[in-house]
Write a structure and sequence with these properties.
The protein has 401 residues and is of the alpha+beta class. The protein is built from eight helices and 28 strands. The strands form four sheets. It has a six-stranded mixed beta barrel. The chain has a four-stranded antiparallel β-sheet with strand order 16-15-21-22. GO terms for molecular function: aspartic-type endopeptidase activity.
Length: 401
């Protein structure tokens, strides 16, 4: 069994993921053929379903992201997967694993033992929608390459996906991985929640209405379980504010961030800074990235608010504003609030403001991009303890209690 990732490993992997997402952002305007479908009310099932899965931090699986357990096949075999808003194709490792498979905690999924498994043909639309595909004996082959050089390749297939005992998705299109290499910890694969046609959200739009939400517990809260929910939350019973999704791009979840407050004061950041490259919200990125000038303003205001505390040198190449809290019983940090188009505010709590890099060293859990044209990303550290709601049909997102 691998050792759990330390903060240095996590931040290194996070840097590579950010580079991957920023590359996708730059390429997103060149093609529009993978845009997720929209459904009219008459296309929806008569009653939109609701499926809730327990969500855990992936540290037990040597992962820095969040995981759920789903069932593949008939009879179902449980597989623990990272749920990822930055990915479209869902996949799990499969026997016979003709090339390479990494070590996972659960037994590999064996399609030969499932009565509902079948491969997707090369001439299908599902195969045509893939960014990377090839063909072998009229069987569609998929491939995904991540920025950290991790890869998965195998058969594109249809299978029965069990979310809960009462929520079963038949003919779910996924990747049956036969060659899987890289930094995946000991998970079984990925559950794609992106906006592309292969994602779980798009494939179940008639059943769940293109709506999903999650609550992410901090890694330190080992006794707490979060959730991933597919289907609509009841807006009347939750204190949730919404901001429109920016649908100008065909992939990823773009938001219109319009300002940031620190300690109750709005930072003097020109609104054009946030418009230059845009901002996405992502469940798989750990640390929030901001345009360089926006981060500089946030860091400066935060340091002023922390003048009573002893700063300490950083042991991270990513995080540059750190403090030693070893002799303190009570710690108060300036409140950071993101302001979004439509009036939605996202208040970041302590666990989303300070990131433990080693021992008693806590660092400001934000980082600046190289310049103001690089994509901004709201990471999962800042989303902890919030109910985050995505409504892909209405174009609204970021429900915060």
């Amino acid at each position: 069994m691998n050792q759990p990732p330390n903060p240095t490993d996590i931040l290194h992997g996070d840097r590579l993921r950010v580079e991957f997402l920023q590359t996708r952002h730059k390429l997103s305007s060149s093609s529009n053929n993978n845009k997720a479908p929209t459904s009219s009310p008459q296309d929806m099932e008569e009653s939109i379903k609701l499926a809730t899965l327990p969500a855990l931090h992936g540290k037990a699986y040597d992962e820095a992201s969040y995981v759920v357990t789903v069932g593949y096949g008939t009879p179902k075999k449980n597989q623990t997967v990272v749920f990822d808003t930055g990915s479209d194709v869902s996949w799990v490792q499969c026997k016979p694993c003709v090339s390479t498979c990494f070590l996972q905690r659960e037994p590999l999924f064996n399609p030969s033992e499932s009565s509902s498994y079948r491969n997707v043909s090369c001439g299908s639309l599902e195969c045509a929608y893939l960014t990377r595909s090839s063909c072998s004996s009229n069987t569609c082959l998929y491939g995904v390459v991540y920025m950290d050089k991790s890869t998965t390749k195998g058969f594109l297939a249809r299978e029965t996906l069990t979310l809960t005992p009462s929520d079963v998705v038949k003919d779910f299109v996924f990747g049956c991985g036969q060659d899987n290499r890289g930094l995946f910890g000991t998970i079984a694969g990925i559950l794609g929640l992106g906006r592309g046609k292969h994602s779980l959200v798009s494939q179940t739009v008639k059943k769940f209405g293109g709506i999903f939400s999650y609550c992410l517990p901090p890694p330190s809260a080992s006794s707490r379980t979060g959730h991933l929910t597919l289907g609509a939350v009841t807006k009347a019973t939750k204190n949730i504010s919404y901001t429109p999704l920016n649908l100008d791009h065909e992939t990823l979840y773009y938001l219109d961030l319009v300002g940031i407050s620190v300690g109750g004061r709005v930072l003097p950041i020109n609104a054009s800074v946030f418009l230059n490259a845009g901002t996405i919200i992502d469940s798989g990125t750990v640390i929030t990235r901001l345009p360089s000038s926006a981060y500089a303003a946030l860091r400066s205001a935060f340091k002023r608010g922390m003048s009573a505390y002893q700063s300490t040198p950083s042991d991270s190449s990513l995080l540059d504003t750190c403090y030693d809290f070893s002799k303190l019983d009570t710690i108060t940090v300036p409140t950071i609030v993101f302001h979004f188009n439509g009036g939605a505010d996202m208040k970041v709590d302590f666990s989303g403001t300070m990131y433990v890099t080693s021992g008693s060293r806590f660092c400001l859990a934000f980082a600046g991009n190289i310049d103001d044209t690089d994509l901004g990303i709201i990471g999962n550290v800042q989303q902890q303890n919030l109910e985050v709601v995505y409504d892909t049909q209405v174009g609204e997102d970021l429900g915060c209690p």
